[in-house]
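Handout, section 3.2

Students often ask what a structure token actually looks like in practice. Rather than define it abstractly, here is a full record for valine--tRNA ligase. The first block is the sequence as you would receive it.
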Amino acid sequence: MPYLSEELYQRLPKPNNGQNSSPSLCITPYPQSSEFNQYHNKTIEKDVATITDAIDKINSHYSTPGVPRHEPVTLYIKSSSSISTLFKEYFELIKSLTNIDNIQILNDEPTVDQKEYIHIATTSDYRLFFKLTDDLE
């Protein structure tokens, strides 16, 4: 592999017309993380962490009795408008990694007598619920 890697490195375009670039891949300094700070976006990282945490919580509750495993379900969210927008923005990702077919935003928390809602997760930013269909209650 070293010969192939070196050959590919030699064919890459060099910045500044090759000045100040290493003549060989073997002696090229390893890139430092500080070189990529311009691509670092803390907002996106926080948003993706929120979504992946929610996906983990959703998937862990498919083992809960009464939650259909093979039928798409609707995810109900009680949260601020910014978090609700975030879930809508990442809906396709959530859908592909869980068995969610729709996301609904709740205006009010489900009450104790609304037994069709199954509580999934609570964080400081949101609360997640599944809603059972009539034939599963």
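Discussion prompt for tutorial groups: The chain has two domains: 2-36, 42-136. How would you have guessed this from the sequence alone?
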